[in-house]
Design goal:
Layout lengths: L2 H17 L16 E7 L6 H12 L3 H14 L1 E8 H17 L6 E5 L1
Helix pairs in contact: 2-3
The structure holds L-tyrosinamide (TYC).
Length: 115
């Protein structure tokens, strides 16, 4: 049983103890924990370094220094985390970067992975 479920059960037991009856009422609105997704940026042999820095600044709001550092990490290690977002935002960022790079005729790619 996961933690959320076991908390629900505890709450149910408390309600029963307080009222001396079986609980018919469960907490109405269950708050959902959002899932997070990483946008990975992949290395390739053709995209210019300055363009990668530009993309990281434009789409991931990195400073020039942060963007340069991440670009070099990706260049040496093969990939890096450009950002962590909820599912829809992560998919949108990756799509925007990939389309933008196609338009500029560079093979730069972003992919989304569960965080
Ligand atoms: N490897 C590229 C080059 O040498 C630079 C680069 C870095 C490309 C990071 C993509 O995500 C990337 N021009």
């Amino acid at each position: 049983m996961d933690q959320k479920n076991s908390i629900d059960k505890d709450q149910e037991r408390l309600l029963e103890e307080e009222s001396g009856t079986r609980a018919l009422v469960r907490p109405e609105e269950k708050t959902k924990v959002p899932s997070f997704y990483k946008v990975l940026i992949l290395n390739d042999d053709f995209t210019p370094r300055e363009y990668v820095v530009h993309v990281l600044q434009k789409f991931f709001k990195k400073t020039e220094q942060e963007a340069t550092h991440l670009m070099l990490q990706v260049h040496h290690k093969g990939m890096g985390v450009a950002g962590v977002f909820t599912c829809e935002i992560a998919e949108t960022k990756a799509y925007q970067v990939n389309e933008y790079s196609k338009k500029h005729k560079y093979p730069l790619k972003c992919v989304v992975e569960a965080a």
